[in-house]
Structures are given as structure tokens and as C-alpha cells.
Amino acid sequence: MADALKNVIVQSLECPVCLNTFTNPKTLSCSHTYCKACLDNLLECHGNDQMLRCPVCRAETQVPSQNVSKLPENLALKSLIEDVKNQHQFCTNCKSEDKPQAVVYCQDCGMYLCITCHNTHSLWQNFISHEVLALSEIKSGKVSVRRYRKCRKHPKEDEEYFCIDCRRFSCFWCVVMEHKDDGHRVIEAAVYESSHLKSTEDLKSKADKKRSCFQKYVDFIDEEKERVSNVQKQCTDDINEAFEKSVQQLTENKDILIGEVKGRTEGVEKELDEIKKSAQEHITHLTTIADMVTKRTKIPLNMDALAAHDTLCQDLQEALKHEDPDYKQPIQSSKKGKSVTFTRIVGMDELTLGKIVNAVAKNIALPTKNNMNAMIGTPDGRMAVVCCKRGVEIFSADGQIQQKVFKHLEIHGVGFLSDYRYVILDGSNIITLYTLEYTKLNLMFETLSYDEGGWAGLTVDGDDQICVSYRKAQKIQVFSPAGGKAFREIPCDGYKFVQITSYNDYLIIKSSITIRLIVKQGVVKYKLSKLGGSLYAAVSQGNTILIATLKHDEGLVSIGEYTNELKLVQNIIIDYKIEKPKRNWYYLQQYRSGEIAFCTPDRLYIFH
């Protein structure tokens, strides 16, 4: 009877939340007691709320200044715990009244043993494999004793059943006397324990998935924030470079510009920080409540512990109902920061550095996805997009599609002569000339076939010379608009080209990550390479060179203005986010009216 009473006392010294002996016990206004650390965790789950809900009875207690330490301490319980810890445990195997002190506890026998009984127990063949714990380790808290559930009303009986309706363990006699009628659902305790463990594991799995989901969201926000920070850094660097080339009197203007960049980007960073903070708070909430529910080695036995566990499980279920992250919010916030760029102003009488502008693009979906082959400005100031088997679609500077021509031709390249005649290059590397009225002219050009030359590119220079580049043959043929044989061949040894553009007395050759300016005898005059992105070139309306750097995997495009020696003049667009297509194929051009057109296989972006 004394052992049964002691078991009841020991069980009453356990916190209903962590199921361990109370440490620094604090009492709520409803008189229920918990470990201070458990209450700290519960309060953290409720964010900035100063009201703490009791896991057992669900009554609310106000926590002064959100500091659990200010709650009253259960001194009587704390004293009882110390008394129990300091009590000597006597051997439960010896039959004499004067029982010696125990030194070990056998988990399998459920008995405390003195040194004599322990030595005898160790010699018994059937008990050699039993788990024996030193009493000193039990008292220090290094190991936990596995208790056997005994009925309080029938101390000799084990609680081998569990009533689902009453939420309590019972022995056989209690089931017969108290839980037989009124439709009580009674199952074996082992079945309940198995179901409880499975339910706990399921909750842990769901919490891990939800936590992983929000962690990816936080990582995404960090990436967006880093891109915004890179824009700020790039803009600041450009401003400083321009400032160093100017006179000291521009200091005040420089500080204003940098402040403007910071003003436009730091606000975005603060927005992203707030979104990130909210997501991290949800991760903390999930982690804390999930750990309280799942990181435990014992099954809750009494009604308080079960009630506490039910409440914690309900809190976790409510937390799991939180909607998954909405990526649109950080994307919309970061757009404002990523669109900031610095534009240098030169050639004015008044000394100035430049201005901060937002890159805004008109985003137009091409009629057929993954179908764009080339793009070129038309003589009347519009933009012609070559869409392979769908012919040529012509767009105005405001993004309106105004005309579709050559609908039934498979086209790989288009050029224009000074008299506005069309120069068409088809998939077999055949060149055909058409009038403005789309009448085919009876002219023949002796180009290399696709088998001989491979993929071909086309450009028309200022002298109406038609240049055709061959990737496989690694050379360029130059034709007169009168047709016939090529009157010049330009060798391109040591590199393969993807696109060709005419520029003054040069040809601009694009090959993967390198842009080359070659003279018309084939000698490379200038070269620009960038790791980590593909380069695309076009001639600007100011007769400078525009170069787009495209990070295909990330879907980011930057556009800069360069001299004829391929030296950077200014960054126009930095890390503009585009919709990444399947095919890594792009074109860059500028409208006569100044808008920059960047075309992907799927979409046309017009930067104003």
C-alpha cells in the first residue's frame, strides 16, 4: 500500500505538459501548476498576447509584462519535490521489516534492490538481460524510471484498459463497475498507446512538412532581398563612378541621389523583412508547439496530462491550418526595389550626375510559344519579330501587334535594304528579296546549304551589303543586293557565332558568353566576355552598343550601354525578372523612338 501511495505522489509531481518532475513550478490563476519552461514555451506560441491559456482547463491567466517569472511559485509543491528526492528508497524485495536501502532499480521487475538482492538478481539466469538502473543516476535525472500503471482504487491491479469517453486508464474491475454502461468505448491500453504514438508521429510529420514549406518561403524572401540589395549596390557604384569623374561641387547632388536609391530600396527591404518576420514567427510557433507535443518519452497517464496533451494537439492542428506562403507578396514588394536603376546624364551644360529611374517593361505574350527566331527594327520605326513557321509579326512601340506578314514561310532571319525591300533568310539558308507589297523578286543568291553551312544568321549593313553567317562552316559570306555569288568571305577561326549585327564598319558577333567586334576582313578588334550569363548585342539610336546580360536559369536580364570599344558607359536595367522560357534563345533591339525591345522565345518585353 505504501508503494502504491508513493507512486501516486510521484505521479502528482509530474508536469502535465512535459511529463517530467516539476522544475521551478509556477501556478496559474486556475490553480493548475506547470514548469516555468513549459509556460514560457506556451506563451511564445501566442506571440505578443499577455493572456496564457491553461492546457488542462483552458482558463486564461494574465502574465504580467509577458514575464512568466512574475507568476506565483508553488512553494509547497517545490518543497514536496525536494523531500521526495531526499527520501531514501528501501529494498522492495527483502521480506524483513528492517529493510536495507536500495542501490539499484530493475526496470523489468519493477523493484528496488539492495546490494545483496542485486547480487543475487544478477546471478539468476532468466534475469541477466534485465535493465538495471543505478539509484544515483535516477536521482540525478540522467535516466527515467519506467513506471507500471497501478489502479488507485485497486492497487494490486494494472490499468490495462483505456476509456475513450472518459479519457482515462482503468483496471479490469473499474471497467466493469464504472465504464460498462452508457455506451463507454473501452479499448486495451496497449491499443490506445499504439494509436497515440501513431497520431503523434503523424502530427510531427505534418509539422515538419509545414515548417519546411515556410523555410523555403523564408529562403525565397532572402533571395529577393539580396537581389534588391544588389541593385542598390550596383546603383551606388555607378553613382560613385560618375561622381569621381565630375567636380567636387557635385557632392550634394551625389548624396541626394544615393539617398533616393536607399529610400526606394530600403523601404522594400523593410517590407520583405516584415514578411520574413511573419513567416519566421510561424516557423517558431510550429516548432515550439510541435516539440511540446512530439518530443516526449512518456504517454500521458492522468486526466490533467491527457487534457494538456489534447489542448496542445488542438493548438498544433490550428497552427497546421495556416495557409501556405503566398509568394506573390514578396515578389510584388521586391519588384519596386529591383526596378530601380541609375541613368547617367551627359552632354548638358549644367553639371549633374544623372537620375534614378524605375525600369518598367511592357510584357507581351507572343502568339505561339517557343517559336521566335529573330527580331529587327523596321524602316518605319516598328519592330519585326520572326516567329519561324508563323512568319513575321510587327509590333508598335507601345506593344500593339499591328501586322502579320509572310505567314506561310519558314523564316530564320529578316533584314531591310535602304529602299525598304525585305531580305528573307529561310530554314534552308536561301535568301529571297520581297518588295514592300510582299511581291517576290526573281533574284538568286548562291548561299551555302544547311548541310554545308549549318545554322545561318543574317544582317544588312549601311551599304546594303547582305551578310550571312554560318555556324558550322565558321565563316561569313557578303552578297550584293543584285544576287549571285558572294563577293567576299570572312573567316571566323577559333569561335562559333550565334547572332550577327552590322555596326558602322564592324560586325558584332555574338557567341555564347562573348561579344566580338570584327572588322570586315575578319580580324577581332574588341571583345567582351562575362561569366555566369549569355550576352546579346544591338545598336542603339545614339550609335552606341546595347548589351543584354541574361541569367537564363534565374530569369534575370540586365542591359547596359557600351562604347565602340565595348567599355561600359552606363547600366540601364539591372536584374529585371522575366518569365523564363524553355529555350535559351533571345534577341535585343531598340526602337527608333528609344524603347528597348528584348524578346524571348515566348514573350516580347518593351522597356520605356
TrEMBL record:
Transmembrane segments: none annotated. Residues 15-58 form the RING-type domain. One of its GO terms (molecular function) is zinc ion binding. Residues 86-135, 146-189 form the B box-type domain. Gene3D superfamilies: Classic Zinc Finger, TolB, C-terminal domain, Zinc/RING finger domain, C3HC4 (zinc finger). Signal peptide: none annotated. It holds the Pfam family zf-RING_UBOX. InterPro entries: 6-blade_b-propeller_TolB-like, Quino_amine_DH_bsu, TRIM45/56/19-like, Znf-RING_euk, Znf_B-box, Znf_RING, Znf_RING/FYVE/PHD, Znf_RING_CS. The keyword Metal-binding applies. One of its GO terms (cellular component) is nucleoplasm. Keywords: Metal-binding, Phosphoprotein, Zinc, Zinc-finger. This is Uncharacterized protein.
